[in-house]
Amino acid sequence: MKVLLIDVNYKYSSTGKIVHDLYTDLTNNGHQAAVCYGRGPLENAPNVYKFSSNAEVYAHALLTRVTGLTGKYSPLATRNLIKFMDEFKPDVVHIHELHAYFINIAPVLNYLKENKVKTIWTFHCEFMYTGKCGHAFDCEKWKTECGNCPQVREYPSSFFFDFTRKMFNEKKKLFNGFDNLTIVTPSYWLSGRVNESFLADKDVRVIHNGIDTTNTFYPRNFDHLKKLHNITDEKIVVAVAPDLMSEQKGGRWVKELAARFKDKRVKFILIGVDDLSEEFGDNIIALGRTKNQIELAEYYSMADLTILTSMKETFSLVCAESLACGTPIIGFDSGAPSEVAPKGYGMFVPYGDVDSLEKAVRVSFEETEIFNSKDECVNYSKHNYSKESMYNNYLDLYLKY
């Protein structure tokens, strides 16, 4: 079987890692796999092809800001991708993300429709059924028709114009007659959103994102980290996210929470802080973003709790990774995380309610039986979120029709 995987990234970022894992497992199991990706470093691997140039990406991003339209300014990259599909002739095309200024969306979907190519499309966000937003948050215009967008200056940002109604209706039209399509979401929360959109008549499945629970995310020795940070018998709370201090990831809530524990023996470790010159309390250890997944697993393993304060998550790799290392989750109930870490493995409170967040942390420190054991957390993650399980579920879908 010949499978083509398409994404903005390869190997790096959450979706890029998933694509790399699927490509590797398909290849190791005797299938002919290829990857086409738009951004990031060049990779020297068979049938792994970066089809977009940095110059065209920058031009696309600039034109999006000026015109308010996106997914329309990469003609060369689009031509390259369609040429690759013509030559590779895949049995299945598996799309992940098509936004991020690297492709013209309409020609790609029209090619797949016209050539009746079996297409699996994993929605990692909400971009394809909104006017432009990756996360609609509390806005519900996408259920009827976008326009007068409250996030027009957010990614993909427009300086002057709001064309979200136009783009919403263009996307809706693109999916008409796209009958050889199966949409996959990583959570039931997101599948529910898809089923409330103009895609409600499509075949929608749920396959959880997978992580490496064998070689990377499992309980690890962390003594060297305690020595590095001069930690003795303190409780440890970790928060992890790219650009953690952004409004979307909610690092400010963690800072406020930490201030409420300044007289307790608790250390808060923040991983993913872009500006390390920012002032933090004495009980906070602020670290930059790490690409070292083993080190990240060591921090999860050292923590008594992982805190999640995002505005919205369509899955939450942080939850899956933390549980795989034996550490439960406390956070805001905002999207899919409470599904990924259900009762016994996670505890979630209303978004922005720091009083309830503080109470949950204090209760977890005082009542040892509020969460399942470390071993139970590990086994739950391995059973539900291993990359092997993800691969097998996708393979079943590739072979289904």
3D structure, described in words:
The chain has 401 residues and is of the alpha/beta class. The chain has 2 domains: 2-210 and 386-400, Rossmann fold (3-Layer(aba) Sandwich); 223-384, Rossmann fold (3-Layer(aba) Sandwich). It contains 14 helices and 13 strands. The strands form 2 sheets. A 7-stranded parallel beta sheet has the order 3-2-1-4-5-6-7, with helices on both faces. Strands 10-9-8-11-12-13 form a 6-stranded parallel beta sheet, with helices on both faces. Helix 1 crosses helix 14 (387-400). The longest helix is centred in the N-terminal third of the chain and has 16 residues, at 13-28. The mean pLDDT is 94.
* Helix percentage range: 25-40%
Order of strands across the main sheet: 3-2-1-4-5-6-7
Estimate the global geometry from the Cα principal axes.
globular
What is the number of helical segments per DSSP (H or I, 4+ residues)? 14
CATH topology of the largest domain: Rossmann fold
Distance between the termini: 12 Å
If classified by CATH, what would the architecture of the largest domain be? 3-Layer(aba) Sandwich
Q: Which CATH class of the largest domain?
A: Alpha Beta
Strand content: 15-25%
Overall pLDDT confidence: 94
CATH superfamily of the largest domain: Glycogen Phosphorylase B
As residue ranges, the low-confidence spans are none
Tally the beta strands: 13
Largest sheet: 7 strands, parallel
Derived structural class: alpha/beta
The total tally of domains equals 2
How big is the Rg?
22 Å
Element-level helix/strand string = EHEEHHEHEHEHEHEHEEHEHEHEHHH
